Amino acid sequence: MGVHAVGFAKPLGFTDAQLFSTVHGSAEDPVWSQDKAPISRLADELYATNHSGGATARRAITATWTRLYA
After folding, report:
1. What's the CA gap between 1 and 23, in Å, rounded?
2. Buried (b) or exposed (e) across 18-29, using 16+ Cβ within 10 A?
3. How far apart are CA 42 and CA 62, in angstroms?
4. Which residues touch 49 (CB under 8 Å, ≥6 apart)?
């Protein structure tokens, strides 16, 4: 388990299954509640667009925030 998981996720109440999902799964995994899945999805999209340039990342983030606040 990485330092960020120990330092941040565990104290915030992440389960072992959720930590596993952050590395090996997706926001669609059943370990995420309906209100937490969009946050996991945003993290996935930020990771996926990290090297694709600013405009692509901004589009992904905007789409996710739009879904969160719909």
Report:
1. 10
2. bbebbeebebee
3. 10
4. 56, 57, 60
* pTM higher than the cut 0.90: no
Spell out the residues 6+ positions from residue 60 whose beta carbon is closer than 8 angstroms to its own.
45, 46, 48, 49
Express each pLDDT in 17-65 by its tens digit.
998 888 888 889 999 988 888 888 877 777 777 766 677 777 777 877 7
Alpha-carbon distance of 17 to 33, in angstroms, equals 13
Q: How crowded is residue 43: how many other Cβ atoms within 10 Å of its Cβ? A: 13
CA–CA separation, 1 and 39 (whole Å): 20
